[in-house]
């Protein structure tokens, strides 16, 4: 009996510890809380499907003959953070993926229109190689030793638009700028180093913006993208912005003492510049934290980011903490689009077209089934119901729907039900 009671007490203790752990997690989560910006939240919602389909596209392109068994894509679904049947997902994007049967097995390949976009993207990347080289040099110049670990940099290469084979394609073409070093001989220890030289320091995006101002002698300063009602945040921002701007490319940054306003100013400038160099002006906070030593970032990076809500926006959309550069967006729209982003947007439009086509086919099929059953379909009477709540993601789809088409609430519900739920 004592053994049973002891085990019961132990189970109760474990349960209590779990509850306490969950409470602590909630409290820790609250430290990350930032007032939600619907536009910036929807900007992330908008590209979620694109990210998944882009990964499927890369899987197909790497496969022999670029024809993949659907069962192989099904096995990759867990790594794509997806559930359900791969066939159902692929069928939702008929403009992107072509599914066919051969020898009693299902296969998938990219459509002709999709392959045209792949070739266009490859052509743009070839033209952008000098830009990629300059971008890589800037990133290395901001690091403390002007070199970065290749394995770590690989985590962010797509954020900056670098092609997967940038080590072979770009680095050897610019020996006057880069060199690969490996002092230990281990593959994981390989680093890219900026070749020592005395070039002029690059101009940061903040300094570039100041030089474009019509007024003469405009000092470089951060811009704030907060509503005028955020009075306290504006006061803190003006106080922070009153001290001189420190370029992230400055060579004497090591002399700055941590905890001082000057050190904070340079750190904010560095994160701002890194985000400005990315394609979508955003980055995973966790991945950014992996470079804490290389860029001399504070241990509590989240505290720094949340301290400057007028410059950065932090969100935990899809349970992944992401920091966005507020000034990079106008509402939910990216302001300055890199040529690589433009072609990737075409991919998104092709996705949207196929998804709308799939949705319409499903709707017509359901109408036919109802007619055969003798169900009378009454014409819809349009009326606005204030009690009907539409999610921010649905509102975003209204604004960015393919070719500007607007869907009524009922159609939107069906649209997202087909998108996010497995077909019955």
From TrEMBL:
Residues 35-355 form the PORR domain. InterPro entries: PORR_domain (IPR021099), PORR_fam (IPR045040). It comes from the Eukaryota. Coiled coil: none annotated. One of its GO terms (molecular function) is RNA binding. Pfam families: PORR. This is Protein WHAT'S THIS FACTOR 1 homolog, chloroplastic. The gene is LOC110783138.
């Amino acid at each position: 009996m004592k053994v049973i009671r002891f085990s019961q007490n132990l189970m109760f203790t474990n349960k209590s510890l779990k509850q306490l752990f969950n409470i602590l997690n909630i409290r820790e989560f609250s430290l990350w809380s930032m007032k939600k910006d619907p536009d910036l939240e929807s900007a992330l919602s908008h590209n979620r499907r694109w990210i998944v389909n882009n990964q499927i596209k890369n899987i197909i392109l790497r496969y022999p003959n670029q024809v993949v068994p659907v069962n192989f894509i099904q096995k990759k679904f867990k790594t794509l953070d997806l559930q359900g049947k791969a066939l159902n997902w692929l069928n939702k994007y008929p403009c992107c993926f072509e599914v066919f049967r051969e020898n009693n097995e299902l296969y998938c390949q990219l459509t002709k229109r999709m392959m045209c976009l792949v070739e266009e993207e490859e052509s743009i990347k070839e033209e952008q190689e000098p830009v990629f080289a300059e971008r890589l040099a800037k990133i290395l110049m901001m690091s403390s030793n002007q070199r970065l670990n290749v394995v770590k940099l690989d985590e962010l290469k797509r954020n900056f638009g670098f092609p997967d084979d940038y080590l072979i394609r770009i680095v050897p073409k610019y020996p006057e700028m880069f060199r690969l070093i490996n002092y230990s001989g281990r593959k994981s220890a390989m680093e890219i180093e900026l070749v020592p030289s005395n070039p002029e320091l690059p101009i940061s995006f903040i300094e570039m913006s100041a030089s474009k101002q019509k007024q003469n002698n405009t000092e470089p300063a951060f811009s704030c993208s907060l509503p005028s009602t955020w009075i306290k945040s504006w006061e803190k921002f003006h106080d922070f912005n009153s001290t001189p701007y420190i370029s992230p490319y400055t060579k004497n940054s090591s002399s700055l003492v941590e905890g001082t306003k000057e050190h904070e100013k340079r750190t904010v400038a560095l994160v701002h510049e890194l985000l400005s160099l990315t394609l979508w002006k955003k980055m995973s906070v966790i991945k950014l934290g992996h470079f804490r030593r290389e860029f001399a970032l504070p241990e509590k990076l989240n505290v720094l980011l949340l301290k400057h809500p007028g410059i950065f926006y932090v969100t935990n959309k899809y349970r992944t903490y992401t920091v966005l550069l507020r000034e990079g967006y106008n509402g939910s729209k990216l302001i300055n689009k890199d040529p690589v982003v433009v072609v990737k947007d075409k991919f998104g439009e092709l996705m949207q077209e196929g998804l709308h086509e799939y949705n319409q086919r499903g709707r017509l099929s359901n109408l036919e089934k109802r007619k055969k059953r003798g169900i009378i379909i009454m014409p819809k009477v349009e009326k606005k119901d204030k009690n009907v709540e539409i999610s921010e993601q649905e509102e975003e789809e209204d604004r960015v729907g393919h070719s500007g088409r607007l869907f009524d609430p009922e159609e939107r519900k069906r649209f997202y039900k087909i998108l996010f739920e497995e077909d019955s």
